[in-house]
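To fix ideas, we quote verbatim a fold written out as tokens:
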Amino acid sequence: MAQISVTDEEVREWGPKLEQIVDWFDQLQAVDVEGVPPATRADLTEENLLRPDMPRTFDNREDMMAEVPDREGPFVKVPKIS
């Protein structure tokens, strides 16, 4: 286990929450998934996993730009990510 420092108050506050999380994982472990193929997302199937890229023209550019909170000329300004 990681050696972390917690106060008695933090133990009282977070202990029950962590126990709930562990219990939830125990429930997940108990689910019978025999015969269920592994997947990263339930809504993906072989038919929609990879679709061909289809270029298309977006006709409502001005409507979209009218909703943009910050722009510089024709460009959308977004916060800098450092």
User: Anything to note?
Assistant: The CA atoms of residues 24 and 30 lie 10 Å apart. The chain has a mean pLDDT of 87. DSSP finds three helices and two strands in the chain.
